[in-house]
Design brief:
The protein is α/β, with parallel strands linked by helices and 332 residues long. It folds into 2 domains: 149 residues, Periplasmic binding protein-like II (D-Maltodextrin-Binding Protein, domain 2), CATH 3.40.190; 138 residues, D-Maltodextrin-Binding Protein, domain 2. 39% of the residues lie in helices and 20% in strands. The protein has 12 helices and 10 strands. Strands 1, 2, 3, 4, 5, 6, 7, 8, 9 and 10 form a 10-stranded mixed β-sheet that branches. Helix 2 links the parallel strand 1 and strand 2. Helix 5 packs across helix 8 and helix 9 crosses helix 12. The longest helix is centred in the first third of the chain and has 31 residues.
Length: 332
Amino acid sequence: MNVGRRRSVVSRLWRTALATVALALLTANAAHAQPAQRLSITTGGLGGVYLPLGESMAQVLSRYIPGLRATAEVTRGSVENLKLIGAGKAEVGFAMVDAAWQAANGLEPFGKGRVDVRTLMLLYPNRMQIVTVDGTGIARLADLKGKRVSTGAPGSGVELMAMRVLEAIGLDARNDITQQHLGAVESVNAIRDRKIDAFFWVGGVPTAAITDLARTPGTKVRLIDHAEALEAMNRKYGPLYVKAVIPPSAYPGMERPVEGIDVWNILVASDRMSDRMAYDIVKTLMERKPELVSVRREATDIDLRFQAIGSPIPYHSGARKYFEERGLRFAD
């Protein structure tokens, strides 16, 4: 082969090699340029558990599910979360089972439209807390009559459950109390400034905002027993609530245990979510649980033994597939 021909062959080989490299780079760049799939997790307001736990979930899902970018959204809580999922404006949300039951069955406060949600997993039990301070004259539920009381932010699961407690003991929120509609942090500020006498809250124990109130100099926090409302609530709305005891170690200054009511929190998704996405979300959160617990200890209850309790809202088929692989069996 003469020199000119050899140079021509070498030149063609180089051009072919360069073209191959260029094509590979273009392909890699195109793949890299594909937009990440977005996932909105609706949570709750400041001072509760939903928001920090939801933020931790979003970070874990974004880190371990390829191509997914999850974000946690601040909301007013369960009812708003369910409405956002129903409207197609969010994919995943935190909710208390009583609110989710109302949504799935098209009951108030969801009007006549059902929200087709599915359970991804049970999270942890929420504890109702009815908080007051010394000097208000409130020692029991009946003492709320005539007082300034926050029943939770509008559109929240707190409000839903608070109204049921009041109804169960024969109090009308419109006529028997001066009703306020505040979230946890706003309620704490209002009671500290003596603008309200008591407030309802439903969340993990301890709740940071209530701990902050209990540590305020010159303030003695009191939690009010309310287990007396349990039987009437379950009789009217179904077996959604269970009796619970808040130990005196929960908040600074508590002197005795308080008998109250628990309701489970669940993570829900639209029934339109793909089985693969639901499976990946549940698998990732279950297997990366230590990272969630490091942010909020309530995540300790994200456990197979509690998933076996079941949810009144049907499980998403993708979530169900994961749990069945782990040995759980669901009643059909």
